[in-house]
Amino acid sequence: MHAITIPEPGGPEALVWAEVPDPVPDEGEVLVEVAASAVNRADLLQRQGFYDPPPGASRYPGLECSGRIVAVGAGVHGWAVGDEVCALLTGGGYAQKVAVPAGQLLPVPEGVDLVTAAALPEVTATVWSNVFMIAHLRPGETLLVHGGASGIGTMAIQLAKAVGARVAVTAGGPEKLARCAELGADVLIDYREQDFVQEVRKATEGKGADVILDIIGAKYLDQNVKALATNGRLAIIGLQGGVKGELNLNALLRKRAAITATSLRARPAGEKAAIVAAVREHVWPLIAAGRVRPVVDRVFPVDQASEAHKALDEGSHIGKVLLAVG
């Protein structure tokens, strides 16, 4: 088969479409013929040499895919050759075939085409696990989403609205904020022009956000704590703004607030399977009902993965950037 390889770390040109050995599914795995994958920030870091795959994982980038099952390993139940699926991966999505633990498979949702389904596994698993399973966002609470126009952000807005929460977002510029509003965001904050702490306090009559979903990290740490409500929960899922910051523990204590930080890729297979099962139970019916939808900015052919990485680097996209493989 062919896959996107990274012979040497570097810029987008480091991605090379090359012939590689076919994967073989182990016990408990299926082999998926890939229709599409999606570009995530983790892929850009891996390409640059900053985010190696966990031991035993595929060396090729790609943390999610959609496609058809072409082989079923021993011990797999409930899946068959020919099933159309999308999957959460530890790596290997930028390829014609990938072996996937059965617990990380999802059926393609009703009303979603096979290529577009590649936009769903990573964002739904990330948002559901952090905002709902860990931070326990409840109806009537306020969620602040940083990067509201990103793939994660566009999904977080929709899921929070679907459960009856109020949503504030930060994004750069009127076009991105307008798209967030179309998805249901209630409070629109241009981080280039406005102080999100002040805007959140103003919108909540001084209370603050009950849950904050943060992709920035250190740069926003102090401001995030200030923006939290009493008993607020800050969920950090990205480090675009750095890895080290100062934390005012007294402010955190006074608010009885909590901070969590998670990544999805390195979690054990059992934890991923539990998250995927929760997504199938809670999110898939919302997609089938048309209340939640994947947001796709552009689709590139997989042999133009370097152009897709450039698009993500530029930061002008809204929603997901996909790679069509099949």
Notable traits:
alpha/beta, 10 helices, six-stranded parallel β-sheet, 26% strand, 29% helix, globular, seven-stranded mixed β-sheet, single chain, 326 residues
Radius of gyration: 19 Å
Distance between the termini: 12 Å
Q: What characteristic shape results from the CA principal axes?
A: globular
Uncertain runs with pLDDT below 50, 5 residues or more?
none
Q: Which strand-content bin applies to the residues? A: 25-35%
Described by strand count, sense and barrel closure, the largest sheet is: 7 strands, mixed
Question: What percentage of residues falls in helices of 4 or more residues?
Answer: 25-40%
One letter per element, helices H and strands E, the order comes to EEEHEEEEHEHEHEHEHEHEHHEHE
Label the structural class.
alpha/beta
What do the pLDDT scores average to? 97
**What's the helix count?**
10
Q: What's the total number of strands?
A: 15
Outline the structure in words.
This protein has 326 residues and is of the alpha/beta class. Helices cover 29% and strands 26% of the residues. The protein is built from ten helices and 15 strands. It has helices at residues 41-47, 121-134, 151-162, 174-183, 196-203, 221-227, 249-255, 269-282, 284-288, 305-314, and strands at 2-5, 16-19, 29-39, 64-72, 84-88, 97-101, 105-107, 142-146, 166-171, 187-190, 209-214, 228-236, 258-261, 296-301, 320-324. Strands 3, 4, 5, 6, 7, 14 and 15 form a seven-stranded mixed sheet that branches. A six-stranded parallel sheet has the order 10-9-8-11-12-13, with helices on both faces. A two-stranded antiparallel sheet has the order 1-2. Helix 2 crosses helix 8 (269-282). The protein is globular. The mean pLDDT is 97.
